[in-house]
Write a structure and sequence with these properties.
heterodimer, A: about 240 residues, alpha/beta, 6-stranded mixed sheet, 4-stranded antiparallel sheet, about 35% helix, B: about 300 residues, ABC transporter involved in vitamin B12 uptake, BtuC, two-stranded antiparallel ribbon, about 75% helix, binds adenosine-5'-triphosphate, binds magnesium ion
Chain lengths: ~240, ~300
Amino acid sequence: MSSPGVPLLEVLNLEVSYGGIAALKGISFAVEEGEMVALIGANGAGKTSTLKALARLLPARGSIRFRGEELAALPSHALIGRGLALVPEGRGVFARLSVAENLSMGAYSRSDPAGIVADLERVHELLPRLYERRRQLAGTLSGGEQQMLALGRALMGRPKLLLLDEPSMGLAPLMVHQVFETIRAVAATGVTVLLVEQNARLALETASRGYVMESGRIILADSAALLLADPRVREAYLGE
Amino acid sequence: MDTFLQQIINGLTLGSIYALVALGYTMVYGILGLINFAHGEVVMIGALTALAVIKPLAGAGLPGPLALLAGAAVAILVCMALGFAIERVAYRPLRHAPRLAPLITAIGVSMVLQQLAMIIWGRNYHSFPALLPATPRELGGAQITDLQIMIVVVAILMMAGLALLVNRTRLGRAMRATAENPEIAGLMGVDANHIIALTFVIGSALAAVAGVMVSANYGIAHYNMGFILGLKAFTAAVLGGIGNLAGAMFGGILLGLIEALGAGYIGDLTGGFLGSDYQDVFAFFVLIVVLIFRPSGLMGEKVSERA
Ligand SMILES: Nc1ncnc2c1ncn2[C@@H]1O[C@H](COP(=O)(O)OP(=O)(O)OP(=O)(O)O)[C@@H](O)[C@H]1O
Ligand SMILES: [Mg+2]
């Protein structure tokens, strides 16, 4: 549907500040339809602020064009209907709702019952654990299961672009592996992904392109393979 | 006469009313974390509005139950509009203000509504006509009136309806999700403003019904009846665990029973030193005791911090 040459998401001079202190100092980047892009950087670089600004959870200056539409003027709750979903840092599952209820919240903005049922089946296939635990309160799930739930819930909104904030955070290595397998599977279905990660190696091995952030700026942009080979990245983010 | 059973009946009646009002406090607290101290005045406006409709209708010879129904219907509509307006005017502009600000506004709204009611209806106590057959029924040595039966039944139906709405519908799910985390619910497409407005409207409808019940039960309505009733219902909500719907229902009924039993036995207990006009003391005494041992109320869970 997007015309050739126009990226799915195009961000220009995005600025965010917290009480006068600039966290994003005018960053610009783009995400093409169908690709997975990683956004890496040290603690406090501004990765979460970027995603929150995109999801309209923070007041920001600059332009956010998504599928040809300016998002900067829209309220947060209008975004999922336009195809943009955020899985926030720390997952944000509704602890006092059951797993099944969390998933139906993901489809809150939709009004195609048949499509919702089909997507629920798809999510259950992708994440069988969620089906087993569907009656359980989300707050009683393990961290990994909560991450799966947050992912499944976001998919229930049938997003075009999925923003993921630190999906590996606080998970055991085996769980990280599973979560990233799922993310790859989701991307393989054609969902565009913007992946924020502290685990830079994992992120760059999963994504096709990457941006490196430092102190509120994007300092490097390249293909994932070239970033993995870049000595600056290797030294600062891959611990070599 | 069986005093114990009689006080249980009276307590259930009173408790049903407290429960309906307590639900309004607890729903708003659950979603906004604020105590809507103007809620008691909504009950009062409900009672006086119903009375204004009922008097001419009953005077024109409309059967009592029909007049009561018409009065309640109008009261519900007026209170829903009022609840909507209170949220819009008094609370929404202060959504991100420090906690103390909306508390002060709440008190302000409360005073405005009382003054308004005083201007419209005067300072007098208005007698609320008896609209249902007054002859009580015998029940195991105690007496129960049709009005009491109606109050308890209607309250149960409304609470069941609310529980269904909140626990079984898409809208109720959105309400619970918003109460837990409005930002994330927004990401799912929930417009928190709609949910918050709806919460006030539903709470106010329950308050209107409670207002009609309480004035029908005591046969009286006046412009400052909302204050102490609101305070009691708030107590009931805290007793049950504020923010918890089942807690508000339970706390309301419990408070009604405690008060009724207290009023029935206080004379005997104190050797005639204290009369039943001290029944109000019971409510607050119980509240203090409960809060000492269970600061989050009887059914309030200690909710863990968000991840
Ligand atoms: N609510 C806030 N109030 C004030 N400053 C904030 C707030 N949130 C973030 N910041 C600051 O903004 C900067 C960017 O933070 P951000 O959370 O975007 O970083 P991040 O790259 O996501 O870091 P991490 O890897 O630790 O999650 C940091 O300096 C942080 O201290
Ligand atoms: Mg972060």
